[in-house]
Design brief:
The chain is α+β, with helices and mostly antiparallel strands. It has one domain (2-115): 2-Layer Sandwich (Alpha-Beta Plaits). It has helices at 13-27, 60-71, 112-115; strands at residues 2-9, 37-45, 50-57, 83-90. It starts with a strand and ends in a 6-residue tail after the last helix.
Length: 121
């Protein structure tokens, strides 16, 4: 799994809120055409005018394709979004809380292989 992290700093708080709402609405129908993403996490700090969009890709090839397309796009209200930087990471761990074994459970039937099956994803 690979992650493309786009960061904005120095954004106008109102522009940031509007951009985040529009990205949220657009993402409901899936990723933009040509972006083979598996997930999106948008983090917003309105008080300090910062945001991060973490886009997840299954393979390095998918990430490269998505990165190329996303680099041609601009966020809504870009002129008020401040400086943008983009970084690429290999995701070593991805956990969704509902997928974690119940820590309070006394059921020992969950073996290490099943408990760590998402590490390779």
């Amino acid at each position: 799994m690979y992650a493309r992290v786009a960061r904005w700093e120095g954004a106008d708080p109102h522009a940031l809120a509007a951009a985040a709402a529009e990205i949220d609405e657009r993402s409901e129908s899936g990723p933009p055409e040509g972006v083979p993403a598996k997930g999106l996490l948008m983090l917003v700090d309105r008080v300090n005018g910062r945001a991060m969009a973490v886009t997840l890709f299954e393979t390095e090839e998918d990430m490269a394709k998505g990165h190329e397309v996303l680099n041609t796009m601009s966020p809504p209200g870009e002129e008020k979004m401040g400086q943008r930087s983009v970084e690429i990471y290999e995701a070593s761990t991805l956990r969704i809380l509902g997928e974690w074994p119940d820590a309070a459970s006394t059921d020992d039937s969950v073996d290490d292989e099943a408990a760590h099956s998402h590490d390779a994803e």
